[in-house]
Design brief:
Elements: E1 2-5, H1 7-18, E2 32-37, E3 40-46, E4 50-57, E5 59-62, E6 64-69, H2 70-79, E7 85-90, E8 93-98, E9 101-106, E10 122-127, H3 128-139, E11 153-159, E12 162-168, E13 172-179, E14 181-182, E15 188-194, H4 195-204, E16 210-215, E17 225-230, E18 233-238, E19 257-262, H5 263-273, E20 283-288, E21 291-296, E22 304-309, E23 311-313, E24 317-321, H6 323-332, E25 337-342, E26 349-353, E27 364-368
Length: about 375
């Protein structure tokens, strides 16, 4: 094998592929990155759960394949001087020459490397930036507890031209709807994708204008797998098992009150007031006509109070939230104005941005459980 490649192109491709390398590989070959130099260079990584493959242009002199330590290759590629890179194999070694720098890496047996899973059938495409933003909005609410795997995922529901993403950790729920271009107008599918994998993937595929989503429809091929492709990069992930919560029933159908607050001042006020909130203690919000008063801390400890402007429709209400969860929601609504809709101080409230036009449903909803106030 012998080829030349632009240094930045190599570093970027290797760095992207290396994201999938397992931290503690169950078998040594999974720590490897597979290089396949033919008309283009294909770099692959696989940990039996997630696969990643990128292809990039090269000037090939002698086609071939090799398997080398992925993390070492990533560190070397990142550190190379700004010159073209020549990669060659010599027996059981791979040599990288870049300017006056030369590195020699030992290879692993290519024949022991597992075959990457096939991509499921292409289901449709969506704008890469919008997809990354939508996944980011929802993944924040996914659980981190691996003992309840279904809560660590994002539920992807596809019905015709609408994709709905949902995630919950039982204390909050984030739901985002977006339009996409399905391959078939009647396509429908449901998948539960690991939230971290989905978030990393969506963020890393914004180099292309669109992301193609590959997913087996109901009873079709590609069951148990989802694939994403864009900008010369493709990745697959195994789906999570388990029944996701029936989240639609958690969203209130009507509200007793609605408050609107400028998002940026609200975020800053919550951050300031929560400085005195001990671990797991809430920030209390007292809404009345024209303002909301934020309070944290108790009589025996440090306390903070701040009032900011707010509009209120409905009766005055006192409601309290975990400040971290509240800030997560406020940071992701993507609107200058935060709208908080509530029923009672003990039932879930829904945080949204203000829709562009009155009467429109917001495409992002963040439901948050209040903390019971004592006394």
């Amino acid at each position: 094998m012998k080829f030349r490649i632009d240094r930045d192109a190599l570093a970027e491709a290797v760095a992207w592929t290396a994201r999938t390398l397992p931290v503690r590989p169950p078998v040594p070959v999974l720590a490897g990155m597979h290089l396949d130099a033919s008309d283009r260079l294909k770099l692959s990584a696989f940990d039996y759960e997630v696969s990643a493959q990128v292809s990039t242009d090269i000037d090939v002199e002698d086609p071939g394949t090799a398997l080398v330590s992925g993390r070492l290759l990533a560190e070397i590629s990142r550190s190379l001087p700004p010159h073209p890179v020549e990669v060659t194999t010599d027996g059981a070694k791979v040599m990288l020459r870049c300017g006056s720098a030369k590195f020699t890496l030992l290879t692993m047996p290519v024949e022991d490397y597992p075959t990457l899973p096939e991509m499921p059938p292409a289901a449709g495409s969506v704008g890469s930036d919008e997809f990354a933003a939508a996944v980011n909005q929802v993944a924040v609410a996914a659980g981190r507890d691996d003992t309840i795997p279904m809560l660590t995922g994002v539920r992807v529901e596809i019905e015709g031209e609408t994709v709905t993403l949902a995630a919950t950790d039982r204390y909050r729920l984030a739901v985002r709807e977006l339009h996409w271009k399905p391959e078939r107008p009647d396509f429908s599918a449901v998948a539960l994708v690991p939230a971290k994998t989905l978030a990393d993937t969506a963020k890393s595929l914004t180099s292309g204008a669109e992301v193609s989503i590959a997913l087996g429809g109901a009873g079709g091929t590609g069951e148990g797998m989802i694939g994403f492709e864009g900008g010369g990069r493709r990745t697959t992930s195994r789906l999570l098992d388990g029944d996701f919560v029936k989240y639609r029933s958690l969203l209130p159908s009507e509200y007793a009150g609605l408050a609107e607050i400028q998002t940026a001042p609200f975020i800053e006020a919550v951050k300031r007031v929560s400085l005195v909130a001990e671990r797991n203690t809430p920030v209390r919000l007292s809404f009345s006509q024209g303002e909301v008063v934020l309070e944290a801390g108790t009589g025996d400890e440090a306390q903070a109070v701040e009032a900011i402007e707010a509009t209120l429709e409905g009766e005055d209400i006192d409601i309290a939230f975990n400040p971290g969860f509240l800030l997560d929601g406020l940071s992701h609504i993507g609107s200058d104005i935060a709208r908080l809709s509530f029923t009672t101080p003990t039932k879930p409230a829904v945080l949204t941005g203000k829709p562009p036009q009155d009467g429109e449903n917001p495409n992002y909803r963040y439901l948050i459980m209040p903390v019971r106030l004592s006394g």
